[in-house]
Write a structure and sequence with these properties.
Blueprint lengths: L6 H6 L6 H13 L17 E3 L7 E3 L4 H18 L3 E5 L1 H8 L5 H4 L3 E3 L12 E5 L2 H6 L3 H19 L8
Parallel strand pairs: 3-5
Antiparallel strand pairs: 1-2, 4-5
Helix pairs in contact: 2-7
């Protein structure tokens, strides 16, 4: 689960079809996750943007505000109920906060197998969450190789949990 659609995702009506999506697919494959078996979505359902300086058609991503994340939360919860995932991978801070609350920090909580909070006390039917960097953050990182390796390592935690191995941080 990512933050929100990007420009290409908004235009094509599909999540993770741009450069970040290609990087995510490569990292997931390397980690042992079959993306053909994955349900891919975003915490926020609309593309928030500003026009590039000087006009033109280029639209530049603008991070969603907390109120926008909260407004989309009922749709996200409905998706989770319908899809009934075994593991949810939260890609980036916005996705992590949408699932785990406002105190979530990617730098502190990434790569750990965390219980998904819910409205009741019964954890048995709820999936776990593994948070990691958003693939677009990897693309913007000064140390892309290191950031990519961290993304793959975090995705391996999810893959191990899916395989019944529990994963790191559990």
């Amino acid at each position: 689960m990512g933050e929100q659609p990007g420009d290409q995702e908004d235009r094509q009506g599909e999540p993770f079809v741009g450069p970040a999506g290609r990087l995510l697919r490569r990292a997931a494959e390397e980690a042992g996750i079959d993306m053909d078996e994955a349900y891919v979505t975003n915490a926020v359902k609309h593309f928030k943007f500003v026009r590039a300086p000087g006009g033109g058609k280029r639209r530049i991503h603008k991070a969603p505000e907390l109120r926008e994340v909260a407004a989309c939360h009922p749709w996200l919860r409905a998706e989770l109920r319908l899809v009934h995932p075994e593991i949810v991978v939260a890609l980036g801070a916005t996705a992590g906060k949408a699932l785990l609350g406002s105190s979530f920090r990617v730098t502190k909580d990434r790569g750990a197998l965390l219980p998904l909070p819910g409205d009741d006390e019964d954890q048995d039917g709820r999936p776990h969450v593994v948070a990691t960097l958003h693939p677009s953050a990897v693309l913007r990182a000064d140390d892309r190789e290191g950031a990519y390796a961290g993304l793959v390592a975090d995705l391996r935690v999810a893959a191990e949990a899916l395989a019944g191995g529990g994963g790191a941080g559990s």
